[in-house]
Amino acid sequence: MLKTQAVTGSFYPDAAAKEAKKKTEYTTTYLGQDSFATLIDQYPPLEEYNANAQDTSWWVTLLAQLIPVVLIVGVMFFFINQMQGGNSKVMSFGKSRAKRLTRDQPRITFKDVAGVEEAVEELQEIKEFLSNPGKFQALGAKIPKGVLLVGPPGTGKTLLARAVAGEAGVPFFTIAGSDFVEMFVGVGASRVRDLFEQAKAASPCIVFIDELDAVGRMRGAGLGGGHDEREQTLNQLLVEMDGFDLKDNVIVMAATNRPDVLDSALLRPGRFDRQVTVDRPDRKGRFEILKIHARGKPVSENVDLEVIAQRTPGFTGADLANMVNEAALLAARHGKKQVEMVELEESIERVIAGPEKKSRIMSEKEKRIIAYHEAGHALVGHVLPNTDPIHKISIISRGRALGYTLALPIEDKFLNAKGEMLDEIAMLLGGRVAEEIAIGDITTGASNDIERATKLARQMITRYGMSDKLGPMTLGEQEHEVFLGRDFSNTPNYSPEIAYEIDKEVRRMIDEAFDKSFKILSERRAQLDLMAVVLVDRETVDKDELEALLNGTWDEFLVKEKAAEAEKRDSDDSASADSEPEQKPEDTRPIVDVPPLGLGPVAQD
User: Fold this and answer.
1) Is 94 within the bounds of a domain?
2) pLDDT, tens digit (0-9, with 9 covering 90-100), for 360-390
3) Which of 1, 476, 501, 548 is 20 to 30 A from 489, comparing alpha carbons?
């Protein structure tokens, strides 16, 4: 019989098989009806056959060919849709990704901004123009088309832009500079056009571009030249900022922490013609920022925000917000209902050095080495006249540091004198010197101190011109490397002889600072040993304890400490007279005596 394109049948291979009626099955290829019919006529089959082949339907063949094509196209569309975002249409490459903040959303006003009073005053004009443009247009005044906010990360540039929009009550479009540029050519320019079309339709409004340096870098940098996708986006941005009229009432605000790499065409009058510097807040500004972040939080009455502001020099608004939040988390972890001073002080150290690593187990030998190392920093810093006051010493690991000495300035400083920098180098080397004096060996614990001291000494010579031998010269100029996108790189502009003299001056400064630290610690060996013993015992020494150690009043301090503990215990007992008082073990810690000078290390391995 016939099955599709093959012929099957059976036959008797020999007479014996025929007598036994044992047929052998076979299958052969179909040769076609005409040829097969001729063979059948010549050799009649043993059984009936059907010569009509069962052909496959045409639609089944077509479906088998279309299914792979449909699958491939579907996979391509899926990946394109994923690249554009789950909520975007497949071919919406040229649409702007700007987010629009309307009046219905929570408003941010200038009352929510602190520590940048000068920047707020500069932006008041923008708010007044958006609220009442006729006041300026009647006098023929032109409001700046673009305002560039310049400052370090975390100083509140984006917050200021949102505050302007909140004060004026106008729509606010926000987009990151990196959202303009994609791997597809022409997408960035199309998104710029779409963004400004939306802004004109919603005018008066504010367009805010965060991290402008991602799209506004100097043109001609790199191998792409004028055909680079980023440069096409920048060109379109320049055209759009020149294109809209004053009557559109669209103000472009942008933020960057790298104004040095921006294209000069962006900064000319008519585009970003006003630059507002948003710097780190001073002590008063930090106090005002802390008051804002303390709103809505149960802060204890004994918390002095003035003291916290004094202890956080160099903190930005974002750092302060993070610090207050960390304090609230610590209070919740301790089961308290209010945030107290101890949590705020702990959060300062968490922001500066990282969380404590009490689980890191160190041997007694290593604890003793670290104690001498940190005591050396603190003692040298206390003796030298041009260093910041020591606030705290600890041998508890934080972050990547095995221990730390916290020195905080009394007031904000904007200039550094030569004497201050030399004393800072000596203080940095105090840890290594203490190891050498007390332990008789040196360790790798001072690697970061040596690196910072060497870098500071080289900057004093090559950047600040503080070398007596080389004089007031800047050695090593900054050049713009085209392949680095106008990033700065220092290249020597001096002879090998001058380079040799620079190395000699660095060596001289380091040696003099080392000798200064060695003399201080050698003359005060008893204080160094006592500080190390107390650090090993208590692990952390605060400002009051440090003053007692350095002033030679440690015995009196321990007596007062025991008296204060006893008074507190008595007050707790009287407050809980109606219940069984908790038995607390008596403090039997011995008063640590100052070891005799020259007897070597007190603690033994």
Assistant:
1) no
2) 778 889 999 999 999 999 999 999 999 988 8
3) 501
Residue 410 sits at φ, ψ, to 5 deg, of -75, -35
CATH code of the domain containing 298: 1.10.8.60
Tell me the pTM: 0.70
pLDDT digits (tens, 9 = 90+) for 81-126: 666 554 444 445 556 666 776 666 677 888 888 888 888 888 888 8
| 132 part of a folded domain | yes
Residue 517 maps to a domain: yes
Q: 605 Cβ partners below 8 Å, 6+ apart? A: 364, 365, 368
Picking from 353, 378, 409, the residue at the C-terminal end of a domain is: 353
Enumerate the active-site residues.
374
Q: How many domains does the chain have?
A: 4
Query: Domain of 324?
Result: 283-353
Handedness of CA 549, 554, 560, 561 (dihedral sign): positive
Asked if residue 142 is part of any domain, the answer here is yes
Contact 387, 424 (CB under 8 A): yes
- The pair phi, psi for residue 176, each rounded to 5°, is -90, 150
Residue 262 DSSP class? B
Ramachandran class of 441: left when φ > 0, alpha when ψ lies in -120 to 50, beta otherwise:
beta
Are 295 and 387 in the same domain? no
